[in-house]
Write a structure and sequence with these properties.
Number of domains: 1
CATH architecture: 3-Layer(aba) Sandwich
Number of strands: 13
CATH class: Alpha Beta
Bound molecules: adenosine-5'-diphosphate, 2-keto-3-deoxygluconate
Order of helices and strands: EEEHEHEEEHEHEHEHHEEEHHH
CATH topology: UDP-N-acetylmuramoyl-L-alanine:D-glutamate ligase
Largest sheet: 9 strands, mixed
């Protein structure tokens, strides 16, 4: 399969050892997480070669990030930044299937990503570039890195995928609408929830009466783009060239939905690189997303093709 290139920030992740407020829970598990490396690991497990570019601090967590993702077969081109620490997230388990994430990432090594971190000719050599709306909101230099990679991809005829992934803690809605809207317009393949797509369409932000169908027509009047709407437990839909395909989610016992969207994107892209139909891509993506919901980690449960097959029983429903 053609190689995928992605870039962004991956942080240390401390998850409370049991349900309860981190004001009281005293034990925690150490791991890592970042939307783009979650997708990269998902792709690697599905047999797609993938390169990730990012910065980590010259510290233990940074080495942990690199060891984990390299251990998953991801080609990590990381700069060890001596001047900033690796970012950190805390995940509080609030109840069954419910979690809350706190970020400690302002000024982190990952947020200092710059256009010059992307080696010459790399963008032009891959089959697809995948970005998320997290990276351009990290800093001005990370925003420039995203724009530069997208421009290089377009000039080189490389397909661009963009997951809106709006994180309200990184920027207010009006700033995000401008920055993310620009990237949506440059992408060939766009992923987002109905709410996220509403953010990036000027004028639609506060208008509850706008339907997703209207939104996607506004986003893509020419029909050249493929827009994939992620609806959590309600499944997902692909809008392309005037046609719509809807696919229901699987019914699973949810442990933690964080990372489900990234697993979904990895599944979808793996099919896209093999020129699958929208129906086939959505089926694999929904299965990858459902599998991720059944475990606590952000990426650890990303399925291999054999695991995908085992996850679904003979009737096509998850075996749990
Ligand atoms: P994000 O993590 O980006 O917010 P969603 O919550 O929409 O994304 O989830 C992405 C995909 O993961 C969904 O389209 C679906 O395939 C799967 N998924 C998410 N939540 C559930 C759930 N509760 N049950 C089954 N599948 C789910
Ligand atoms: O999509 C899951 C990600 O949100 C998580 O792994 C951490 O990259 C992350 C972020 O910035 O929220």
């Amino acid at each position: 399969a053609p190689r995928v290139l992605t870039l962004g920030e991956t942080m240390g992740l401390l998850t409370g050892g049991r349900i309860g407020s981190l004001a009281h829970v005293s034990e925690a598990h150490i791991g890592i997480g970042g939307a783009e490396t979650n997708v990269a690991v998902g792709l690697s497990r599905l047999g797609v070669p993938v390169t990730w570019i990012g910065r980590v601090g010259d510290d233990s967590l940074g080495r942990r990030v690199l060891r984990e993702i390299r251990g998953e077969g991801v080609d990590a081109r990381a700069l060890l930044d001596p001047e900033a620490a690796t970012g950190l997230m805390l995940k509080e388990l609030r109840g069954p299937g419910m979690s809350r994430v706190y970020y400690y990432r302002a000024g982190s090594a990952g947020s200092r990503l710059a256009a010059t971190d992307v080696p010459a000719d790399l963008v032009e050599s891959v089959g697809l570039v995948h970005l998320t709306g997290i990276t351009p909101l990290l800093s001005d230099s990370a925003h420039e890195a995203c724009l530069s990679v997208v421009q290089r991809a377009r000039a080189g005829g490389v397909r661009v995928s963009f997951d809106v992934n709006y994180r309200s803690t990184l920027a207010p809605a009006d700033v995000a609408a401008d920055v993310l809207g620009e990237l949506v317009r440059e992408a060939d393949l766009v992923f987002g929830s109905p709410e996220e797509l509403a953010y990036v369409v000027p004028g639609a932000v506060t208008d509850d009466s706008v339907t997703v169908d209207e939104l996607t027509r506004t986003l893509d009047p020419t029909g050249a783009r493929e827009i994939v709407v992620k609806r959590g437990a309600d499944g997902a839909s692909t809008y392309t060239q005037g046609s719509v395909v809807h696919a229901p989610a699987h019914r699973v016992d949810v442990v933690d939905t964080v990372g489900a969207g990234d697993a979904f994107v990895a599944g979808y892209l793996s099919g896209d690189l093999q020129h699958w139909s929208a129906t086939e891509k959505l089926a694999r993506a929904n299965t990858c997303g459902a599998a991720m919901c059944t475990t606590p980690g952000d990426w650890e449960a990303a399925p291999t093709p054999a695991e995908l097959e085992a996850f679904l029983g003979a009737d096509g429903d998850p075996v749990q």
